Amino acid sequence: MKKSKRIKKSNSWKIKQHRDQFFKKSKTLGYRSRASFKLIELNKKYKLINGNSDLLDLGSYPGGWSQVARRIIKKGRVMSIDIKEMAPIKNVKFIKGDILKDNTKTEVLRYFNSKLDVIISDMAADTTGNKSLDSIRTNQLCADIINFSKDILKPKGVLVSKVFMGEDFIEVKNLAKSLFKKVNFFKPEASRKESKETYIHCEFLKTL
Ligand SMILES: C[S@@+](CC[C@H](N)C(=O)[O-])C[C@H]1O[C@@H](n2cnc3c(N)ncnc32)[C@H](O)[C@@H]1O
Q: Going by CA atoms, what residue is nearest to atom 11 of ligand 1?
């Protein structure tokens, strides 16, 4: 077998192993997606969510992150949004909608009627087969949420969002730094090493 073919085969074996490991764990713990473990790790690192948090989960389908958030939050409100229909989760207010649209943003403001503690976004644009274009489109979603967060987060609120280490990554980072005092990046173990996905963590709006 040619060397390049051998490397490809061993990489796809590693990806499968990685998926299977988190898939099995999510089934055992009753989570809807392997992505749940990314939020668990992010929360362990940044202590994002507490029992009283008012939280918005963007790109929530199938619901893994919302389940994790709901298990931690005892008194606060959880609202989840996705363009795909999500099966109900107890005590989670779901809206089927596109967060880029003004009417969806208005629904968020109307539901909470006060500023939020936490926004988590695992949104990813639909894949086109062109990795560079996919990364740009997902980073545009991230940039939109960074802008939206300045209107709806409490001054000490936190935003965590998926972002790709693509060509426009630096623009997203600069936008975040223009609005937040503290900006960090973290790639959870549950995120495949081969993927350019990472998570941006933004805290303390500069209006403080
Ligand atoms: C990786 S999945 C999220 C997985 C989820 N965090 C979980 O734990 O189950 C990304 C989601 O982002 C959603 N999405 C992409 N663009 C969106 C938009 N403009 N508004 C709302 N949701 C969007 C997709 O429909 C998709 O379901």
A: 59
Which residue type sits at 102?
D
Look up the domain containing 3 and give its range. Answer: 1-30
From the alpha carbon of 98, which atom of ligand 1 is closest?
20
Q: pTM surpassing 0.90?
A: yes
125 and 155 belong to one structural domain: yes
Domain containing residue 47: CATH number: 3.40.50.150
Classify each residue of 131-140 as buried b or exposed e, where b means 16 or more C-beta atoms within 10 Å of its C-beta: eeebbbbbbe
Average pLDDT over residues 3-18: 66
The Cα–Cα gap between 172 and 179 comes to 11
Residue ranges around ligand 1 (CB below 6 Å)? 32-33, 35-36, 58-65, 81-84, 98-100, 122-125, 141
Q: How far apart are CA 84 and CA 169, in angstroms?
A: 26
